[in-house]
Structure formats: structure tokens, C-alpha cells
Amino acid sequence: MSGQVARLTQWELADLDNHSFFDSYRRYNKELVDLAKASYMSICIALNAPPTEVAFHAAYTSVLLSTELYIEKIAKKKNYLQPPSYGRYAELLAKYVREHDWVTISGVPCPP
Question: What Å distances lie between residue 80 and 34, 75, 86, 105, 110, CA to CA?
Fold first, then answer.
């Protein structure tokens, strides 16, 4: 398994835009990044090492799907977005946050 996650494609970016996920990213940026940093730190503790982007992405996507922030404040507010598609969009949003905030997220020091 590679240590990097593929970047969002133009189609994925357009899909996020069509469902106003960029607006949600701007509105909830602090909360999304704080959650990402907490996820990164949890993986650091579990692995006793900084996570790869792949490990972080998988964990952060799962965390998003279990939070009120994503489910109630973001996904349920999207017109025409049905619960079966929440996972796909959590994965895309996790990629978007990682692509835009990786330096901040990965700057969290792992405990010794």
C-alpha cells in the first residue's frame, strides 16, 4: 500500500462543488481541521509514529462519519444527498481537507 492518497479529480471537485461542500468547508474549517488534528494525534499514539496519508485518510473518513459535525451540520443539510451516499462524500471531504490542510494537520507533534 502506498503512503499517499490520490488527489481529488476534476470530477470529484465538481461533485463536491455541486453539493456545496466547499461552502461547508469554509463554514466549518476550524472544526474540520481540529477534528483532523485529533485524528492524526490518535493515530500517532496508536502507531507510535506519524501516520501515512493513507492511514490518516482512512481514519479521518471514519471519524467524520461518526460525528455530529459531518452528519448533522454538513451532510443532512445538502439537498438531494441521501444517507447511502454520506460515506462517499465523507471520503471526498476528507481528501479535500487533507489536500488543503495537510501541513497544519501533520504539524501536530507525535508524543514520544
Answer: 28, 10, 11, 31, 40
Counting Cα atoms < 13 Å in the Cβ hemisphere of 60 gives 34
Task: List the one residue out of 69, 60, 53, 67 whose CA is nearest residue 94.
Answer: 60
Residues 19-64: tens digit of each pLDDT: 999 999 999 999 999 999 999 999 999 999 999 989 999 999 999 9
Domain boundaries, the chain: 10-106
> Over the stretch 77-105, which tens digit does the pLDDT of each residue have?
998 899 999 999 999 999 999 999 999 99
Geometric angle at alpha carbon 36, from 32 and 38, rounded to 5°: 120
CA distance 33 to 18: 22
Q: What is the rounded CA–CA span in Å between residue 93 and residue 72?
A: 15
